[in-house]
Amino acid sequence: MCDFCEYCNMFSKDLVTENDATQKTRQHLMTLGRLDSIDALRLFASFLIVVLHWTTDNILGQGLHLLAKNAVPVFFIISGFFVPLLCIKGKIRKQQRKILNLTLMSLLLYLIIYFMQSPSGLLISLRKVFDYKNLIVLLITNRTSHFEGGHLWFLLALLYDLVLLGEFYKRRYCKYVWVLMFMLFFANFMIANYVDASVCYIYRNFLFTGFPYMCVGGVIFFYRETLSRIVHANVVLPILLIISFAMLLAEIWIYGVFGLPIHREHYVSIIFSSIIIVLWVINNPAFMAGTFIPEWGRKYAVYVYVFHWLFRRLLYSVLPNSVHLSLILPITAFLLSLVMSMLYVYVVDKVCSFIRKRSSTPMSIPIQRML
Known about the structure:
Number of strands: 0
Radius of gyration: 21 Å
Low-confidence stretches: none
Structural class: mainly alpha
Number of helices: 17
């Protein structure tokens, strides 16, 4: 029996063996819903993703770049936070199907764009994309940069980690989460010291980035009440956040002193700052409540992530060079991606509604799930 915490008992479907305390905890968890603060954070993080893929050379832009380094870890931590709850509610398979469909749709979209823009012709482009070496790298390291859509590694990593963590929790291997989390973070750091940024996909993937951060999210879920009692969100966490950013600057300076790569996909200090950000929003569930921000974050944040690459490339090609380094470009790309996300969700909702009204055949069910 896993002794990680009492939650491990709930990952089993055998309700007969549960004691009264565990059953009450399960009943309480079944009533938990979404947090407005987390959904608002999703939207802010999606904007930082756009900033992260923006090239700049001014101080403000570089500062935003460092802040944006938290965006992907925050997305993984939030996803990992809800995995135990999805397992307990029996909804983990539904979430896995949702991410699978989104991943396939996104890959298809950017493959079509790549084939349309490729100057080498359709046949040569097909051979390049479906070359067995590229496919192996895609499946193992989630690298999608060999065609238009290099940012889609995140969706593949998220899909893999949802499956892995779902099996971990259902098999009650919770106690191994701690060990794997530290081991994979350490491996990420060591690999980053010895590989060039051009091959960052070796450690920027589901195993060395996604999985440890989602493990962090699970640990926060398990100990959220204890953490809430220990940490006063409105006093301690902002101070810790400032300290973590100071640590990031010191970390970059140390890399430069010892001749290690300064520009990298991941920094050790980002682990702490990302955790602090997520803890803050969890401890302030009413953050942005009553505004449109949580709803937009819940509905559109992940689609902004998918579509922003398209508008980023478009704006770089049509706007003058003088605008490329200004903040106008990422803001415009974010707003266009948000509008595109709204249109996409609206069309999908209408199509699903039409199918439900017009068709009573069994084929309508898988079609709705695919959309």
